Amino acid sequence: MMRKIFTGILLAASLPAFADIAADLSSGKSVQEAYQAASAECGGNCDEQIFADMLAAGVAVESITQAALASGADVASVMSAATKAGVSVADAGAAVQQAAGNLGMDVAAVDNAVTSFITNQPATAAGNETPQQAPVLPAPPVPETPAPFNPTTPDDISPI
To answer: Looking at the record, which segments are called Disordered (predicted)?
Structure first.
């Protein structure tokens, strides 16, 4: 019994943001209204979860970043939320810059914040992915040496 109650509480704690966002969007709320409602529901400290949930609901990255910035989130937290949700740093930066222009924000300040975020990311050879070491494969077994060919009958000897 207690296990079922605990599972229900855990499930309820992990699912409501996406369910509410999807319901809000399907009921006709704008992306910004849905973002603000989800942010208010979690106390304003869940930009990453809201971003991931909105992406899962099919909302465009540009719309989410604009809603987040319009709701008062700072550039660094929007960039962080986007990249942790699987958006590339380049796409997140472009979306933030586009949203800042749409919202009439100080574009130079936003550009500086995006550049600062990008330069503070750990460098990897392939961009923002975690570097992976190639697996070490064992050497193939050495085949046994076949016995030398020793013709013993005239049929075994080539005429040429």
So the answer is: 124-160
Length of the chain as a residue count? 160
- What pLDDT, in 10s, does the model give residues 45-102? 788 888 888 888 888 899 999 988 888 888 888 898 899 888 988 899 899 999 888 8
CB 113 within 8 A of CB 75: yes
C-beta contacts of 26-32 below 8 A and 24+ residues apart:
30/67, 31/59, 31/63, 31/64, 31/66, 31/67, 32/66, 32/67, 32/70, 32/71
Q: Where are the domains of the chain?
A: 2-123
Cα separation, 68 vs 39, whole angstroms = 9
Residue 124, classed as helix, strand or coil, is: strand
Which pTM does this prediction carry? 0.63
Q: Please give the structure tokens belonging to residue 117.
A: 């975020």
Cα–Cα–Cα angle for 129, 135, 140, nearest 5°? 155
